[in-house]
Design a protein that fits this description.
By secondary structure, the protein is α+β, with helices and mostly antiparallel strands. The chain folds into 3 domains: 3-80, Uridine Diphospho-n-acetylenolpyruvylglucosamine Reductase, domain 2; 84-194, 2-Layer Sandwich (Uridine Diphospho-n-acetylenolpyruvylglucosamine Reductase, domain 3); 210-292, Uridine Diphospho-n-acetylenolpyruvylglucosamine Reductase, domain 1. Helices cover 25% and strands 23% of the residues. The chain has helices at residues 38-50, 101-110, 126-132, 191-208, 228-234, 263-281; strands spanning 29-33, 55-58, 64-66, 71-77, 86-89, 92-96, 113-114, 135-136, 139-140, 145-151, 157-161, 178-185, 187-188, 241-242, 245-247, 255-257, 290-292. The longest helix is centred in the last third of the chain and has 19 residues, at 263-281. The two termini are 30 Å apart. Bound molecules: flavin-adenine dinucleotide.
Length: 293
């Protein structure tokens, strides 16, 4: 049997990426799979390698712009129960890559453990957060990481210590692997204080970010000692439209999907923002979102 059609491998036919990304943009994945465990994942990776088929790992799809024309390759989503578990042991937690950050924050708070609440409001998985080194207001998930277990594209399992993970602002070296799980080190804190911090962060997000329509969070990384949003705003681009995409009037580093926006609409606005900021400030903006186009 052709492995690309083998339902035992968790293959799911006809999956549209617009249904799997927070931007609600993206055509069909050539092959899409949700493996039920690590063994099936290994098989998929090896089959794809033999066929020279590119592999894309999808978390919650909250930082991805996918092409309307679809994606040539194998998209793997690690959302089955084998990848969403967590186990607390004192101040440590071993957590699966597919677990949503929101759940991790809740579970840590229930145990009076602090460290991950700073990720409140980030709509991603643990795996996506590791690869992107997700964070906000000067703190990131790397601050709590002890080690990360990954699979390489030959199906081998490796354990990577924090110091070797290459964590930098909104990036890491983990993207060249498949992140399976991580061990995080948290600290004891009064539950009420954690709850207070969560409430404060949610209020700050509500005030500064624009989540009224589908989006992928901040489009560009902040340049050193500045903010991409401030620079784009200073170029007078808030409210600028391309097709059915618009630069948010509230936060200029957010692009919103007005409904049926195309990936090319978003790319046009990104190009406009980059060009305008480069011309006015001599600053080159670097995309934070991953572009699967
Ligand atoms: C409203 C909104 C607010 C946001 N606010 C913030 C914020 O404050 N701070 C911030 O840092 N980000 C923010 N983001 C962006 C995004 O939520 C984070 O980058 C998040 O960590 C991405 O996780 P994900 O699971 O959605 O990953 P995806 O978007 O699915 O993937 C992102 C990258 O990680 C890779 N990846 C995902 N899982 C794995 C895995 N298991 N193994 C290997 N590679 C993997 C993908 O291939 C891709 O390259 C925001 C997004 C939105 C929509």
């Amino acid at each position: 049997m052709n492995w690309r059609k083998d339902l035992n491998l968790g293959i799911k036919p006809n999956q549209l990426l617009k249904d799997k990304t927070t931007f609600r943009i993206g055509g069909k994945a050539e092959v899409f799979a949700c493996p039920k465990d690590e063994e099936i994942l290994r098989k998929l990776v090896i089959f794809a390698r033999k066929d020279k088929l590119p592999v894309f790992i999808l978390g919650a799809g909250s930082n991805i712009l996918a092409a309307d024309s679809g994606l040539k390759g194998l998209v793997i989503r690690l959302s089955s129960s084998a990848f969403t578990g967590f186990k607390f042991d004192g101040n440590l937690v071993r957590v699966g890559c597919g677990l949503m950050l929101t759940r991790l924050i809740q579970e840590a708070r229930r145990r009076s453990l602090s460290g991950v609440e700073r990720l409140t409001g980030i709509p991603g998985t643990v795996g996506g957060a590791m690869v992107m080194n997700a964070g906000a207001w000067g703190k990131s998930i790397a601050d709590s990481v002890k080690e990360v277990t990954v699979m390489d594209y030959n199906g081998r399992i490796l354990v990577i210590r924090k110091d070797n993970a290459g964590f930098v602002y909104r990036n890491s070296k983990l993207g060249k692997y498949i992140v399976l799980e991580a061990v995080l080190s948290l600290v004891k804190k009064d539950k009420r204080k954690i709850a207070g911090a969560v409430k404060k962060i949610l209020a700050q997000r509500h005030q500064s970010q624009d989540n009224t329509l589908p989006n992928a969070g901040c489009i560009f990384k902040n340049p050193a000692k500045d903010s991409a949003g401030r620079l784009i705003d200073a170029c007078g681009l808030k409210g600028r439209r391309a097709g059915r995409a618009v630069i948010s009037k509230k936060h200029a580093n957010f692009i919103l999907n007005l409904g049926s926006a195309k990936s090319r609409d978003v790319l046009k606005l990104m190009e406009l923002a980059r060009r305008s900021v480069r011309n006015k400030f001599k600053v080159v903006l670097e995309p934070e979102i991953k572009i699967w186009c």
